[in-house]
Design brief:
This protein is an alpha+beta fold. It has 11 helices and 10 strands.
Length: 363
């Protein structure tokens, strides 16, 4: 399920930045796009495999055009290959955790990117095509970023938490704007709501079949129909087989995306949200309390989001480096003519190699 619309991803953590990804720079797209040369058949040649998935010359050329289109710069072949390796790893780890990213999830994100630059989906696809970039090239990158955000937020939830002390210190250290005094960190904020939630997880074993997952969803739905208060419902949930009830969490209106606030506002206090399949299993949230409270100011919310993004970026880089070390990367030599030197026998390069090129990430 798409992480930007799944309640688990937003309730358990805040959406962060995933670095200098092509997606984040899509807003730089301009109308002055020239036509590029179409790919030749030879470009379908496989350059390497990443965990069994191929990367071809065509993939590399397409990524180069996409970077040039969105970042307005040209990067080296080695950097492009490393970016593609990262994307393959991000998608493969998503499959390992059974992250279900549908075509509609990707298409929705793709359409939103076009809308940010005032283009409809078909118009956005046409602009990409005219620039020599197949829409599927960008969609594949979108899929990798959705998968990665879901994994990092779910796996490292505790490490991504931003505490109040760090936020206040960051606000106090930020320079004041010219001609205006910065608002105090403890200035009165607008009214909103504070939600008290209890996450309930129906554990699903790794590699479970779709039928097993569907059965757990039915069990979660059955609990939802019987759940009428947190006092009795939590006790009953704890008695169920392979069900984990986590400690309560507090979330304010400013912590949540509008779509998630709308979901919670429709759930009566003492009841459960709809079951959702996540990387951890089938998850629901008990809404145990909802009260009116002061929410964060815009400035405070921005600082908190920035700090979260920095933590997300750092943790993501560490985890990606770990995954790359464990990845099966099989290199294929390009089919180039073998030059013979007079008096010496031509030496043919090995067809396969497990050597990794230096890891350079496109910034």
């Amino acid at each position: 399920m798409m992480w930007t619309h799944g309640i688990s991803a937003f309730v358990l953590s805040r959406a962060g930045s995933s670095g200098c990804s092509v997606i984040k720079r899509a807003g730089l797209l301009t109308a002055t796009i020239g036509c590029l040369v179409a790919a030749a058949p030879a470009q379908a040649q496989v350059v390497l495999f990443v965990n069994g998935d191929p990367i071809t010359n065509f993939d590399i050329e397409q990524r180069g055009k996409l970077v040039q289109l969105t970042l307005h710069k040209t990067v080296g072949r080695e950097e492009l290959i490393n970016d593609l390796i990262d994307d393959k790893i991000k998608i493969s780890v998503g499959k390992r955790y059974r992250i279900d990213i549908t075509d509609s999830d990707v298409d929705k994100q793709f359409a939103e990117m076009g809308a940010r630059i005032h283009m409809g989906k078909s118009q956005f696809e046409q602009v990409l095509t005219q620039a020599g970039v197949e829409p599927d090239t960008m969609k594949e990158h979108i899929k990798a970023e959705i998968s990665w955000a879901t994994i990092v937020q779910g796996k490292f939830q505790a490490r991504l938490t931003v505490n109040e002390k760090d936020v206040l210190q960051a606000m106090e250290s930020e320079p004041k704007k010219d001609g205006a005094d910065a608002a105090p960190a403890d200035a009165e904020s607008p009214l909103g709501f504070e939600y008290t939630l209890r996450p309930i997880l129906f554990v699903v074993g790794q590699g479970a079949s779709p039928e097993a997952i569907e059965l757990r969803k039915k069990e979660a739905e059955a609990l939802r129909t019987q759940f009428e208060s947190c006092d009795t419902g939590i006790r009953y949930a704890r008695s169920l087989r392979d069900v984990a009830v986590r400690e309560q969490i507090l979330k304010s209106s400013s912590d949540l995306q509008p779509a998630i606030r709308e979901i919670l506002d429709k759930v009566p206090v003492g009841h459960l949200t709809s079951p959702e399949v996540t990387s951890r299993g089938v998850e629901l949230f008990a809404l145990c309390n909802k009260r009116q409270a002061r929410v964060e100011s815009v400035a405070k919310s921005e600082v908190k989001s920035k700090l979260y993004g920095e933590k997300f970026e750092a943790q993501g880089k560490r985890y990606l480096a770990e995954l790359r070390r464990a990845a099966l990367i099989e290199w294929k030599e390009p089919q180039e003519p073998i030059k013979e030197v007079k008096g010496k026998k031509a030496v043919r390069p090995a067809k396969e190699s497990n050597a990794h090129p230096p890891g350079v990430k496109t910034e």
